[in-house]
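1st attempt posting a full record on here, be nice pls
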Amino acid sequence: MTELILITDNDGIIDIQMNRPPVNALNLELVKALHQAIDSHTKNGAKGLILSGREGIYSAGLDVKKLLEMNAEEISVFFKSFWGLMAKISKSPIPVAAAITGHSPAGGAVLANFCDYRVAAKGSFKIGMNEVFVGLEVPKVIYKGFARHVGEKHATNLMVFGKLMDFDFAHEIGFIDELVEPDEVKYKALDWLKGLTQLPPSAMNKTRLNTKSEINDLFDEQLSVMSEGYADGWFDDEVQARMKYIAENL
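the predicted structure (as tokens):
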């Protein structure tokens, strides 16, 4: 059986690689595995985390085919776990860098959105949060997290229209922090974390979390409402029709 998570320890900086072929689609098992890996290594003294993908793909987002098979209770459990993962990344007591190794639409972009830094591979890849395109609203915390990186104008235009971006444009507007050759993505993420973790850790991490306080306060206020609202919205006729179309054409 394929391991859902591959771990590499780089002197206390832990690379957590999503490893669910072929496209790292996010099902409940992978989301739970990410929770467990983050919790375990944070508690065991990791200095920083890298969240990475496979060659050519970071994560294609939610496992639509699997989610379409779920009943209301199962969908509720999934979205609580997925939204909890977003909050965990955003509120992490140690820095988290995204090593975006390839395509990262929807849920993949959402996870990267709440990391502290994003390094991505050069190439003809797409990234973005296209929830509106499939009939789902973009919650305030995702919008605000994205606007924090790219500004209100770009965030509004991209999210209201549900647009995906090529990596060059995402880098140009500030969502991707570094754009490098594919074989350098993890190394650059590691270099950034090494530089950051050489600073006094308590002062650095407290300041880092202070800069994200508005986002993390929104998670505290809205987490249960967001996960329940998404679970309910999943069964909307339009959402189901669009999701079935996507599943059939994957």
